[in-house]
Amino acid sequence: MTDRVVLAYSGGLDTSVAIGWIAEQTGAEVVAVTVDVGQGGEDLAVVRQRALDCGAVAAEVVDAREEFAAGFCMPALRANARYMDRYPVVSALSRPLIVRHLVDAALRHDATHVAHGCTGKGNDQVRFEVGIGALAPWLRVIAPVRDSGWTRDKAVAYAQERGLPVGVTHRSPYSIDQNLWGRAVETGFLEDIWNAPIAELYSYTQDPGLPRDPDTVVITFDQGVPVALDGETVTPLQAIRELNRRAGEHGVGRLDLVEDRLVGIKSREVYEAPGAIALITAHQELENVTVERDVARFKRSVDQRWAELVYDGLWFSPLRQALDAFVDETQRHVSGEVRLVLHGGKAVVTGRRSEASLYDFGLATYDSGDTFDQSLARGFVELWGLPSRLAADRDRRLG
Ligand code: ARG
């Protein structure tokens, strides 16, 4: 039987050329798999047909949008995942899901290899290959762009020689990766990190400077997951989509940062993630109200570690599972409502309420109705400062 290779197919130039190239180099049959993680843009039926036209023996489109929203975006939300305190791990989040479907297709098609179109300079090669190694260590990996001296020009020449239907003439100067959770844009003039982003980079968000009335949205959470918007029940997928639209109209979630890649390179990326940033902003505030202080303080370091782990390609790792178990435990009471005002590029919390609130009006108030016994504070402060006082006395004694 002829060997089969399952290729992660985006529909772009590199992976289109890879179909024929892999077949030629290895004599194998290529099965193209495109995973729909809400990237939008091109009709995926067209992408599928392109794979067949480029010589794939089979091409599949997997609708993984619900799975991505519920099984990947929601855990990221519960962990307030933002790499380097800013980037909501958009691309990093989709890779393990794509890997799952590649492995599934490899099993169904009796494939021996999995192929991807990542370069050797980025994080995604790591995420794909570490994921495949964890789920199906017997599968071997083919990475033509990285391992075979592939250049853009060679790929274009190859496509033209063979008349591949890949529209190389309207090539974008940017490298773009997008999904339900957000959008990443790099390369082109952005590689000069002094250059400011320009309007044409953006597609999920409007210019935050456009004059527009603020939009107010109330998000209801149940155990850290959004379940209603303005009182209308939503699935995770609907919540993200709707907030992408509403927050996007106000330019929420634009980011421009130089980030530390796992391979050691610093790179500049422009992101837009309106829904993710609106949801994380609201979720964090509901945690402030419902999560006990020491759990909340500890969780901040867990959140950071979670984002780094997922960024670094270790979704399929015991530590991520263990951190998720911790996060799950912390979300038991993260239920209630947060009111957000979306305006001028910002999502601002203006109200919060919860049956599980730890906010006690009687303890907090400076007006009448105060239930806090201030006479207790004096002794508390005295003992709290005792170690510092002892140390300071000692230092004075010894000069
Ligand atoms: N730097 C981001 C990450 O490593 C995005 C990678 C893909 N970006 C792109 N523009 N193609 O998660």
Automatic annotation (TrEMBL):
Subunit structure as annotated in this protein's UniProt entry: Homotetramer.
Cellular component aspect of the GO annotation: cytoplasm
Keyword Membrane: no
GO terms of biological process kind: argininosuccinate metabolic process; L-arginine biosynthetic process; urea cycle
Family under the similarity heading: Belongs to the argininosuccinate synthase family. Type 1 subfamily.
Name by which UniProt lists this protein: Argininosuccinate synthase
Gene Ontology molecular functions: argininosuccinate synthase activity; ATP binding
Domain of life: Bacteria
Residues reported in the UniProt entry to bind L-aspartate: T119, N123, D124
Positions that bind ATP: A8, Y9, S10, G11, G12, L13, D14, T15, S16, G117
Domain annotation Arginosuccinate synthase C-terminal: ranges: 174-390
Coiled-coil parts of chain: none
Catalysed conversion reaction: L-citrulline + L-aspartate + ATP = 2-(N(omega)-L-arginino)succinate + AMP + diphosphate + H(+)
Source organism of the structure: Dactylosporangium sucinum
Enzyme class, UniProt record, top EC level: ligase
Keywords on record: Amino-acid biosynthesis, Arginine biosynthesis, ATP-binding, Cytoplasm, Ligase, Nucleotide-binding
Chain ranges of the Arginosuccinate synthase-like N-terminal domain: 4-165
Localization per Swiss-Prot or TrEMBL: Cytoplasm
Binding site for L-citrulline: Y87, N123, R127, S175, E259, Y271
Pathway: Amino-acid biosynthesis; L-arginine biosynthesis; L-arginine from L-ornithine and carbamoyl phosphate: step 2/3
EC number, UniProt record: 6.3.4.5
